[in-house]
Request: fold
Amino acid sequence: MATFNENLIQAVDHYIPFSSSGSFIVALNDSEDKYQYDYDDRVKFVISQERVSDYLSAASFINSSGVEMCCIQHEFGIYGGSNGMHLLALVRALQVPYTIIFHTVLLSPNPEQFSITKKLADKAAKVVVMSRKAVRMLRDIYRIPTSRVQCIPHGVPDFEKPDAELTKQRLGLPKGKTLLTFGLLGPSKGLETTIQALPEICAKHPDTRYVILGKTHPGIFKNSGESYRESLIRLAQQLGVEDHLVFISNFVSEKELHNYLSACDIYVTPYPNEAQITSGTLSYAVGAGAAVVSTPYWHAVELLKNNRGMLFDFNDHQQLSVVINRLLDNPTEWKKLKQNAFKYGCSLRWPKIGKQYGQLFKNHVKEEEAPLLSESTLMQVKSSLSRTMTWNTLELK
Reply:
């Protein structure tokens, strides 16, 4: 989500200049020490995750800052309180319109999750989701009128497509066929399914390697260390395919990630259940023009239709091996899949997505601009900031 927000700011900046318009960031901090993270000067206020008074102070700060629109990113597990209930204190106190972007919409919410989602959506000037499925779920489950919901797809980097073979060499990827999965590692990713499919794949294509790019999820690492990654290594050893499994435990830049996606032969998302309404990793893969093979979770079914990718059943490693072998055996079909993905991915590039957000924000700004307050007034809340701020009032005009 941090990457999403950074990309969103940069993309919208072309239509609503961030600094000169007086825009700023309110950061959510998972530490009691507000000095722990070295935020840049765009961050003007910091909320401690579990301190409800910070949410109220943030609302007061936003109200007095002179901004005309607040954009809130929502994901369960991020905000403080039971199911993130502290966020309701902020939105109740806001006196400017807000747009809320739901990164997750739950199919079977508990009563509290339902209530929080409903209240956040009802007070919003506009609700944004990233798939048509999410629009229907908000309508059918949460009774949010579709007229109040806008579907804007997940944006993807606007990079040129590199030469695949040269990029593969530069990245040091093994020779032969490369299967790739990237993202934070954890049991919810279903990576076992791909490893279980490797014996059948390697029997027909012995030069195949499965590259898993990414570090273990911080929460999982904190509680269990690298036990999940080690379990995947043991599974590969038991199946006799340990030499075909490659871990790259790094955080990589978006540019490098785009290179990996462009260089791989097949990108695999083996998530074990359907309840994923948005997948940034899948969007990135399609945006890079990768040949994608995925389980039919909600976002994949929508994003990979019209022959932009291929699907296999949840936890079905045998079907996965058949699908991958079919693509590796048929270069024409494989190339067509990549071409379809790349063509559609061009519509997901951040400059185009940013234009949609820019227009959305302009359509729902506060009708009467609040008077901008003086530097001395704004500095009254500096005790709630992460560090002492130097205000340039010219930036707030």
About this structure: Confidence is low (pLDDT under 50) at residues 367-397. The two ends are 29 Å apart (CA to CA). The first strand starts at residue 25 and ends at 29. The domain at 164-347 is CATH 3.40.50.2000 (Rossmann fold).
